[in-house]
C-alpha cells in the first residue's frame, strides 16, 4: 500500500519568511510526485510535479520542490511567502505499482501572518 | 470559465434520503473522479470513470454509486445518505490514466442530518 505522509498539520509563518512543507512517501517502483494548493472554499489547484530528471522542480508563484530518493521525500519550498500563500497544501503520489491511482496526503495548512 | 463545475455547492440532506451530486467538465478529458475530503484524511477516491457509460470503484466506494452519461458529465449518487457521509466532495478530471495533473471543481459541502 502506498502511503503519503505530511508531518506538519499546521505551519504559521510571517510574510517574507521562507517555508518548507514536508512530504514523505513509502513504496517503491516508478513514482510520480506532485503538490496541490487549496485556498479556502475552493478546489485543489496543481502546483508542480516530478517524475524524473532534475530533482528540483519549479512550480508557479515561486514554489519549488526537491525530490530525494534516499529520504523518500518531496518537500515543497518557497523563499519568500506572501499573504496569498495562506492555504492548504497537499502532496500527492502515484505509483505504477499501485494501480496508477493518485494518493493524497492529509494536507498542511499554512497561515501567513502580515 | 471554470472548466470543472460542480452543483450544488452545498446541500443539506436527511438521513436515508437520496442525494445526487453533479459534475460537468469542459476540458474534453476522458477521466473523471469523485473524491471526498474529511479533516485528517485528506482526499480519498470514491469512484472514477475513463469513458462514458462506464465507472470504476475507487478506494472507498461503499455507499456510493456513480454515473457517467457523457464525457462531460459525472454524477455521484448516495441512495441512502448517512451521517458518516457528511463531507466535502470534489470532482476532478484528467486527460489520461495516470496523469498527475488533475483539474478540480470547487467542491460540494454535504451535510447529512
Describe the 3D structure:
The complex is a heterodimer of chains A (114) and B (113). Chain A has 114 residues and is an all-beta fold. Chain A is 0% helix and 54% strand. Chain A has no helices and twelve strands. Chain A is globular. Chain B is mostly beta strands and 113 residues long. In chain B, the strands form two sheets. In chain B, strands 2, 4, 5, 6, 9, 10 and 11 form a seven-stranded mixed sheet that branches. The relative contact order of chain B is 0.34. The mean pLDDT of chain B is 92. At the A-B interface, β5, β6 and β10 of A face β5 and β10 of B.
List the helices and strands and how they pair.
The complex is a heterodimer of chains A (114) and B (113).
Chain A: E1 3-5, E2 10-14, E3 19-21, E4 24-26, E5 31-38, E6 44-50, E7 56-58, E8 63-68, E9 73-78, E10 87-95, E11 102-104, E12 108-113
Parallel strand pairs in A: 2-12
Antiparallel strand pairs in A: 1-4, 3-9, 5-6, 5-10, 7-8, 8-9, 10-11, 10-12
Chain B: E1 4-7, E2 10-13, E3 19-25, E4 31-38, E5 42-51, E6 54-57, E7 65-67, E8 73-78, E9 87-94, E10 103-104, E11 108-112
Parallel strand pairs in B: 2-11
Antiparallel strand pairs in B: 1-3, 3-8, 4-5, 4-9, 5-6, 7-8, 9-10, 9-11
Label this structure with key terms.
heterodimer, A: 114 residues, mainly beta, six-stranded mixed beta sheet, four-stranded antiparallel beta sheet, 0% helix, globular, B: 113 residues, seven-stranded mixed beta sheet, 11 strands, 54% strand
